[in-house]
Amino acid sequence: MNAKKGVPLSITRREKQHGRLYELRMQQNLSQNELADRAGISRNTIMKIENGDSIPNISTYQKICAALHIELSDLFK
Length: 77
Description:
Elements: H1 13-27, H2 32-39, H3 43-51, H4 58-68, H5 72-75
């Protein structure tokens, strides 16, 4: 465990990002289907990103951020 932050070392930056997407989607009360429709991508893509099974390219990130009305940097906080 990281003594400074109280975060297990097994939680990577990538895992935090996937959790952040879920968090942002929930804040806007959107289902995976709704976000996928807004972003013009498949629900399966959203599911894989949130589960950590896929790392999207920058274009996909931009579509997701536009659909959530957030800046790209907000996804990585």
